[in-house]
Specification:
This protein is mainly beta. It has 8 helices and 50 strands. It has 4 domains: 181 residues, Jelly Rolls; 79 residues, Immunoglobulins (Immunoglobulin-like, Sandwich); 284 residues, TIM Barrel (Alpha-Beta Barrel); 195 residues, Jelly Rolls. Helix content is 12%, strand content 34%. The strands form 11 sheets. Strands 35, 36, 37, 38, 39, 40, 41, 42, 43, 44, 45, 46, 47 and 50 form a 14-stranded antiparallel sheet that branches. An 8-stranded parallel sheet has the order 28-26-25-24-23-34-31-30. The longest helix is centred in the middle third of the chain and has 21 residues. The radius of gyration is 30 Å and the shape is elongated. The N and C termini lie far apart (81 Å).
Length: 817
């Protein structure tokens, strides 16, 4: 494929000195910042999968002005400022370097005579993306309107053109970002020195024009079919009838096949003995398409495609795994947010756009998660050519609260547009509609959204909800092809179920500050380290844990946070300016490649935990019938508990132990093997049930409790919990009432379950847990190395088991004599 391109700018706008444009002052500069000029503003052909020979780039210097709501377009007026398109208004590269809720763009252009516009051809002006609402006027006539900051759109402007000479184009934009419910990703009007960043308003992808016949190719739909060794091709002609298509598949200069069919419906192009696309061998076929009206060619476009397919299969260990071309492949990925200190949403040059993807390959990754953002078409083109699989997120609405109905509808409209415009890229492995519950409005609706995306593009995986265990999530809808958890530093360890593979959707996040290469002069991460050596060792060990999770839990992929620092986040492989490598890339590559090589589905599996001790007495039990003293006897073992700030009280039967929010009963030993199977049961009564966590029983690790049998103040429910994971009761407990609680950890089935009053009320997928040698404690938990979540209430008959109890055994325990 050859892009025949020339930058076409209004005469006199070729240089900064001539135009009056001046680059702003970025806080940090990348290696490409100073390569940007009015004559070099992303001049490459912007649409690699639908290439036409004749086109002109409209990037470069435009006139610019802030505007007021309802303002009349400034037809025929020169605007006061100059902006470099296509860089967002807030960016230094734009020359504006500020946000405007409303704005005008203006420039002039001329139409080459040999394009025959108005005779045999129409003229289309194309926009890669404009954030957020855009109206386009040519010579005073409105020719297009588009809502959505991430989708491409175009306009037939032929009827608005003057017979000759300069033509005026004005673009009016409204972008109120997170002041509304529009999808914004991580943009914020006020960045928070956390995980939300600078805004990116206005035109932020390439603008160009091209002559197009009245009857022409609108889009191509390309679906590889490995079983039949064909490409299923659909040519959209905008409803024009009586046309035919001639298509040629090429391997370099070699013609692979020629096909001819009516330009309606889908037809198959033979690709005999197909060379398959993969990260190790990203082979792409060229495709030439001619649209004919009788014998006359009315349109001609070139494109390309890769022969590959995605699927799932059970590994030798019986767990469902991801497959590429029928073979199990572990998706080793980073989180890629696509931010730049000079261009914010827009990479300064095409070389820069490609750089981050190239470094994924250098680092030994085979996948990238495009996080809460989209990219120009050329980014996906580079991923196709380099051999990187892509998880494509839908940019989220703002966090905090649930969106109103009209915002829900618009979100779904923009998601549909995203899938439609991305579904031809060879590299895209799946779509992610929601992240961590941000602006999710209904668990049932999340499932319906996932099903809708799958119906729209059944060839790819749908990850309904990345980080479904986290944050603002409304819970697992059970839909889609992927179960995805987040855990920092993690990794997360969800187990696949019968229909869905599992992945660690985010983990890691180790941070290192690098002087003179930070957006704010200082930064944060999920875990900060003191030097590069420590960063290397923490990364390598963390990734070894990923391999363990892949082998024993069956995860099919992991996503490390992140490829570069972004603003206040300093947890990248590179600094935000891409000037400094923060890790030893050889070590990173070696461990990443070892994961891909060894996470093959054979599985080591978790060791059999064994049958445990029979009977329901427990291996350790505390009846609390002493009524006096500073210790409680272990009636089933020898781990007598030392009491602190505890009071003797009446219990369900005999005595009990009461706490006032500052006490504990410390058994002085590690009573359960938290890496295996175990159960803990207790009678518990709360004196208050508000927003504070309260722990009935737990076991210390030195950092966080290995488990919590607890009242979750966040949910106001009983829970059996690991950090970041809770099996919750359906109802809020009543103050002053005794409840029988049992938490069961079954290492063999990979579940964490909660029973209330003898009945199982919740169960969570939980593959593995870290071993713990800390003390088992009644009346409090541990988090961040601190004693926390003290109980305000009472406990009675606390028992610990070295095996998972059965439903019948739990029911027996919950009976009162």
């Amino acid at each position: 494929m050859v892009a025949i391109a020339a930058l076409a700018l209004t005469p006199g706008a070729a240089t900064a000195a001539d135009s009056g444009w001046k680059m702003g002052k970025p806080r940090l500069t990348t290696p490409w910042t100073n390569q940007v000029s009015p004559a070099n503003a992303l001049p490459e052909y912007p649409r690699p999968q639908l290439v036409r020979e004749n086109w002109q780039n409209l990037n470069g210097i435009w006139e610019f002005a802030g505007a007021a709501p309802g303002e009349v377009p400034p037809f025929g007026e020169k605007l006061a400022e100059k902006i470099l398109v296509p860089y967002p208004t807030e960016s230094a590269l734009s020359g504006i370097q500020r946000h405007e809720d409303y704005m005008w763009y203006r420039r002039t252009f001329t139409v080459p005579k040999h394009w025959d516009v108005g005779k045999g051809n129409t003229l289309r002006i194309n926009f890669g993306a404009v954030d957020y609402k855009a109206k386009v006027y040519v010579n005073g006539k409105e020719v297009a309107a588009h809502q959505g900051g991430y989708g491409a759109f175009s306009a037939d402007v032929t009827s608005a053109l003057k017979a000759k000479g300069e033509q005026e184009i004005i673009v009016g934009v409204e972008d109120r970002a997170d002041a509304t419910w529009q999808p914004v990703g991580k943009q914020r009007l006020v960045p928070d020195r956390g995980i939300f960043y600078e805004g990116a308003s206005g035109i932020w992808q390439t603008v160009w024009m091209e002559p197009v016949a009245a009857k022409h190719v609108g889009t191509l739909g390309m679906v590889p079919d490995l079983k039949s060794s064909t490409l299923k091709l659909t040519v959209d002609t905008g409803g024009s009838s009586g046309l035919t298509v001639e298509a040629v598949v090429r391997d370099g200069k070699k013609v692979v096949s020629r096909s001819k069919a009516a330009a309606s419906g889908t037809f198959s192009l033979p690709v005999p003995k197909a060379k398959l696309w993969s990260p190790d061998s990203p082979f792409l076929y060229d495709l030439d398409v001619e649209l004919k009206d009788g014998r006359r060619t009315v349109d001609k476009v070139s494109s390309y495609f890769g022969m590959r397919e995605f699927g799932t299969t059970k590994g030798a260990d019986g767990k469902l795994r991801f497959t590429l071309n029928g073979k199990i492949l572990f998706l080793q990925s980073t989180l890629d947010q696509g931010y730049w200190p000079d261009g914010i949403y827009t990479a300064p040059t095409d070389q820069a756009l490609r750089f981050d993807l190239e470094q994924h390959k250098v680092l030994g990754f085979n996948t990238v998660r495009k996080h809460i953002k989209t990219e120009p078409d050329r980014w996906y083109h580079h991923a196709d050519k380099l051999g990187l699989l892509v998880w494509q997120d839908m940019p989220s609405m703002r966090t905090g609260g649930r969106p109103p109905v009209d915002a829900q509808r618009q979100f779904k409209t923009e998601l549909k547009e995203l899938v439609e415009q991305k579904k031809n890229w060879t590299s895209i492995v799946g779509y992610v509609p929601f992240n961590e519950g941000w602006a999710e409005w209904s668990r049932e609706e999340t499932g319906k959204v996932a099903e809708s995306v799958k119906a729209q593009d059944p060839t790819r995986l749908v990850n309904a909800h990345s980080g479904v265990n986290c944050c603002d999530s409304l819970g697992d809808s059970g839909k889609g092809d992927v179960l995805d958890w987040h855990s920092y530093p993690g990794p997360a360890k969800p187990m696949p179920d019968a229909k869905r593979i599992s992945i660690d959707g985010e983990h890691g996040g180790y941070g290192l500050e690098v002087k003179d290469h930070m957006w704010f002069g200082e930064g944060h991460a999920y875990e900060m380290v003191k030097d590069q050596a420590t960063l290397n060792s923490r990364y390598v060990q963390n990734q070894r844990d990923v391999l363990t999770s892949a082998q024993s839990c069956g995860i099919s992929g992991s996503i490390y946070t992140q490829i570069t620092d972004v603003e206040h986040e300093v947890n990248g492989f590179f600094t935000y300016d891409r000037q400094v490598k923060k890790m030893d890339f050889a070590q990173v590559r070696a461990v990443n490649q070892a994961i891909i090589r060894n996470a093959d589905g054979s599985g080591s599996g978790a060791p059999d935990p064994g049958p445990g001790t029979p009977g329901i007495t427990g291996v350790h039990a505390y009846k609390f019938n002493e009524g006096t003293g500073s210790s409680a006897a272990d009636s089933a073992g020898t781990a007598h508990a030392t009491l602190t700030n505890a009071q003797w009280a009446g219990g369900v039967e005999g005595g009990a132990l009461a706490f006032a929010g500052n006490g504990q009963a410390d058994t002085g030993a590690s009573l359960v093997n938290t890496a295996g199977s175990y159960s803990v049961s207790a009678w518990a009564k709360l004196d208050e049930a508000g927003g504070a966590f309260q722990t009935v029983a737990s076991q210390d690790t030195g950092r966080d409790s290995a488990f919590f049998l607890q009242y979750s103040g966040q949910d106001q429910r009983w829970a059996m919990s690991f950090v970041g994971l809770r099996a919750l009761s359906p109802e809020k407990p009543e103050v002053g009432r005794w409840y029988h609680l049992t938490g069961v950890r079954d290492a063999k089935t990979g579940t964490l379950s909660l029973y209330v009053d003898g009945k199982k009320v919740a169960s969570q997928n939980a593959c593995s847990a870290a071993p713990s040698t800390g003390h088992t404690v009644i009346g409090r938990g541990q988090y961040g190395g601190q004693q926390v979540d003290f109980l305000r209430g009472a406990v009675d008959d606390v028992r610990f088991y070295d095996r998972p109890l059965s439903d019948a055994e739990v029911a027996t325990l919950a009976k009162r004599d």
